[in-house]
Design a protein that fits this description.
CATH class: Mainly Beta
Helix content: 10-25%
Largest sheet: 5 strands, mixed
CATH topology: Immunoglobulin-like
Order of helices and strands: HEEEEEEEEEEEEEEE
Number of domains: 1
Number of strands: 15
Strand order of the largest sheet: 3-2-5-11-10
Shape: globular
Distance between the termini: 53 Å
Structural class: mainly beta
Strand content: 35-45%
CATH architecture: Sandwich
């Protein structure tokens, strides 16, 4: 009887130790580079839709929230709208330099719809908390191409 009690104690202890050292939630690896750490000022949440304002100044200095955080609920659909606030800049429509570059996440991001200073993309959460790097290509109305800006969306 003592052997059975001892064996049961060892098994229960092993299970408890195993459960206490493993996390139920594992963050998937990012697609592309890892996103910057989330702070109180560098992210915005996105409900069913959200608008992300893009500032461009001083000859192509782009300022936009680097992290867009979605619902994290599988199957939830979101519409992300980017609006360039600076009237002399627009999203690129040039062949070979699309306004939106999904990088390695083409299956996550829907096609971009671009209308001058406004662009929107539909996305559906598939892998909660997975981060996706993407690129924004902006040009000055006189034809000057700005350096690509690479922020992130987190499902």
């Amino acid at each position: 009887m003592r052997i059975i009690t001892l064996l049961a104690t060892v098994i229960v202890s092993a299970i408890l130790v195993g459960c206490s050292t493993t996390s139920e939630f594992k963050v998937p690896p990012p697609v592309g580079r890892a996103p910057p750490p989330q702070t109180s000022t560098n992210w915005t949440t996105c409900g069913a839709s959200c608008t992300v304002y893009v500032q461009v100044a001083n000859e192509c200095k782009i300022d936009v929230t680097p992290l867009i955080v979605l619902s994290g609920t599988p199957g939830n659909k979101h519409v992300i709208v980017w609006v360039i606030q600076s009237s002399e800049y627009v999203f690129s429509t040039a062949a070979g330099t699309p306004a939106f570059d999904p990088k390695g996440s083409g299956e996550f991001f829907g096609p971009a719809s671009v209308h001058g200073r406004t662009m929107h993309v539909d996305v559906t959460v598939a892998t909660p908390h997975l981060s996706h790097e993407y690129g924004l290509n902006i040009v000055k109305k006189n034809g000057t191409v700005c350096p690509k800006y690479d922020p992130y969306v987190i499902e």
